[in-house]
Each structure stands twice: as structure tokens, then as C-alpha cells.
Design brief:
277 residues; alpha/beta; two-stranded antiparallel sheet; 55% helix
């Protein structure tokens, strides 16, 4: 798996025009453009999906709005910010890519695409851009990235892998999302940062993740004697004696683990069987 970090003037401008306004000055400029170029503004809404599908060869049907933005000082400022952010993300990826690829191989156990393209936006935009028409390109830029670059990479990978999984078992989307969080936001980050992150994530999934956690450890290959170590690491406790060791789980991939949890959900989801240490 390879991540390529790039910036793109068209995508940056598209998000400037159609994303949330990041300052009163930009909001006023957008309102002025919308009033003067309503037809182009409405037509350009669809451009994002085309950009993500093939950014290298993208040419807008009408570049009027793009060219007007390109000439502004605001655009130059945002472009410099995006490029600075790109270099920071790329630096961390280059330093950790071997480890991350090995961890993903061990955690997911299914093949990913060879190449993914991260189109870096300026962090002030606080957004992710995805498209259902492609699984290999996203737009990305968040202010919180520079607080924890390992978390930034984990969030990017979570977005890519969630997009890869798509509508798999969509009737049970909460179970799927909980397991993806366990895999990427929790286990991958914990290995990468050498600091457990199992109590973090979507607060609406906390209870479900704790219920799945004992079986998740079995999936990771933990023997019964290893369980206490992991419970201490992650600050999640359960009574090991109440669980049958599902040794076959360490041989399946993440898709099969999701199916296992769905099939056995009435048995897995127990009331008050886990606690925080």
C-alpha cells in the first residue's frame, strides 16, 4: 500500500467555493461570486466527484470561477498552507510506512489497493472529501492533524478503509463501524504510537466496542494467558472465564470477523460484562 500526498489547485478552489466558509472575508467573497455567476456556481457543484475520479487529467467544463479565485491573495495563502500540510503528512508517512503496512497486513488480513492519492487541503478547511465513484482518492485537511500526526495518519487510513469496505453488511452498519474503529482508530494507532487508544472514538459506539473487545483480542491472536496484559494495556476489563476461546478467529480476515460478530451478536452483546479499569 502506497499513499501519495499531493495538492491540487482545482480541488482546493472547489472546497473554497462549496465547503464551509473559514472566515467572514471568504464568506463575503463567495456570496459575491454566487450573485454574479449563479449558473457557473450551480453547475460546478458536481466537479468534486470528477476531480477525485481522475485528478491528474481533470479539466473543468467551465473554468470561470476557478480562474477568478486563482488570481486572489486568499488563494495563494491557502495554497501555501496546503503545501506545508502536505509536506508534514508526507514526512510522517515516509517515516512510518513500513511499520504501517505490516500492521495493516496483520490487522486487516485482506488486500488493499496498491496506490491511494491524498489530495491535501489547507488544515483551516477542516474537511474530508470523498466520492462513491472512487476508493483511491480523497481530499483531506484538518487543523487537529498537527496535534498528533500518528492520529492524522490513522484517521486518513480509517477513511480509506471505510470507503473500501463500502456497503458490506450495511444492515449492520454499527457493528461494521465499531470493528473498523477497533482495527484502525484503536489497534493501529496503539501500535503506531506505542500508547493505547482503545477508549477513544465515536462515543455512540463505546458500549458495542467493549462488547466485541474480548472476541477482538481472539481475532488478534491472543491466547487466554495474554488477555490480562491486553486488558491492562487498554484499560478494559472482563471476566475471561465467561468466554469460550474462539481460536479460529485468528485465522480469518476482517470481513469474516465482522460476519462472525453479526452471526453471534445475541451471544456477544451482554449486559454489564465489561468495565473500565
Amino acid at each position: 500500500m502506497k499513499l501519495t500526498f499531493e495538492t491540487n489547485d482545482y480541488l482546493l478552489t472547489w472546497n473554497l467555493l462549496y465547503g464551509a466558509s473559514i472566515s467572514p472575508k471568504i464568506h463575503a467573497a463567495k456570496q459575491k461570486l454566487w450573485s454574479a455567476y449563479k449558473k457557473q456556481y450551480n453547475a460546478g457543484m458536481k466537479d468534486k466527484d470528477e476531480m477525485l475520479q481522475d485528478i491528474k487529467n481533470y479539466i473543468p467544463d467551465d473554468d470561470t470561477l476557478y480562474n477568478l479565485v486563482f488570481e486572489t491573495d486568499v488563494f495563494e495563502t491557502l495554497k501555501k498552507s496546503a503545501e506545508k500540510h502536505r509536506l508534514a503528512l508526507m514526512k510522517v508517512w515516509d517515516e512510518k510506512k513500513k511499520e504501517i503496512n505490516q500492521y495493516l497486513k496483520e490487522i486487516l488480513r485482506f488486500p488493499l489497493e496498491d496506490n491511494y492519492n491524498i489530495l491535501v487541503l489547507c488544515p483551516e478547511m477542516d474537511t474530508v472529501l470523498i466520492s462513491k465513484t472512487t476508493k483511491t482518492s480523497i481530499g483531506w485537511g484538518f487543523k487537529k492533524d498537527n496535534e498528533d500526526w500518528f492520529m492524522a495518519l490513522s484517521n486518513i487510513l480509517y477513511t480509506l478503509i471505510k470507503n473500501e469496505v463500502g456497503d458490506f453488511e450495511k444492515e449492520y452498519k454499527e457493528i461494521v463501524q465499531a470493528i473498523l474503529e477497533l482495527a484502525i482508530h484503536n489497534e493501529l494507532y496503539t501500535r503506531l504510537a506505542n500508547n493505547s487508544n482503545y477508549l477513544e472514538g465515536d462515543h455512540t459506539l463505546v458500549y458495542l466496542k467493549r462488547q466485541i473487545y474480548p472476541y477482538w483480542l481472539m481475532y488478534l491472536g491472543c491466547d487466554r494467558e495474554d488477555m490480562t496484559h491486553y486488558m491492562m494495556r487498554d484499560k478494559i476489563a472482563f471476566d475471561i472465564d465467561n468466554y469460550t476461546m474462539e481460536t479460529a478467529l485468528k485465522k480469518v480476515d476482517l470481513y469474516e470477523f465482522i460476519r462472525f460478530c453479526i452471526k453471534n451478536q445475541k451471544h456477544i452483546i451482554r449486559i454489564n460484562n465489561l468495565e473500565i479499569i
